[in-house]
Prior knowledge:
The protein is α/β, with parallel strands linked by helices. The chain has helices at 3-27, 39-54, 72-89, 106-119, 141-154, 169-178, 190-199, 212-216, 222-250, and strands at 58-63, 97-100, 131-133, 158-164, 183-187, 202-203.
Amino acid sequence: MSLVNTQIVAILVLVIVFVAVVGVPRLRGGNKRPLRRIRAYDMLPAMVGSSIEADRPIHLSLGSAGVGSETTLLAIASAELVYYVVQRATIGDTPPIVSVSNPLTLPLAQDTLRRAYQSRGLSNRFSGLSARWYPSGSRSLAFAAGVTAMMGVERPSGHVLVGSYGAELALILMGTSRRRVPTIAASDQLDGQAIAYVMSDAPLIGEEVFVSNAYLGESARTETTALDLLRWLVILTMLGGAVVSIINRGV
């Protein structure tokens, strides 16, 4: 397929998605779109409630996702998720803990905490010390050791580990499993995502990290519906290509 044909197909797909997501609901006279259920987002309110009732912090981590690197968008999306969780947890007496392993992400974590407290009119309760840096590095065992040690001291009631993790995520999740603490996890690294899927209570997969505003905030649901539709279009395209390849080989 030539480059021009590929561009035409891409434009047609985008037009179809736009019409299906935006145009059709408006023609039907409504703008409410049911969200696909994601267990991790269903769990979060209960995790925050448990943190408040037990007077124990909820721990949120961005891992090694860093501002100014190839994981910048992931760091921003993860920080947005952290914002909505912290916003709900501010009414508790024990402040949430946010951990990072990239030094450049520490100011982002501190600002996220500040915005969350400010949105509730509780700026006087904000403390930058709630954002913590642990030793960085790819597949950082030091970061995993620091987080595990923090678990023993602070005894978080739950963990939301959404960012960039490698194999070191297994050590952290082993610690949460021993303490029987609910955990949500996700990673942009293949090995880290595999570990999150197997060992966490509710993994977030792929672009699910980027739709926290639709599930926890007040965002329009158009973006989430579009992502789901595009996912199925990609799957159908791959399956169609495989079928055509098999037929051609048979011929």
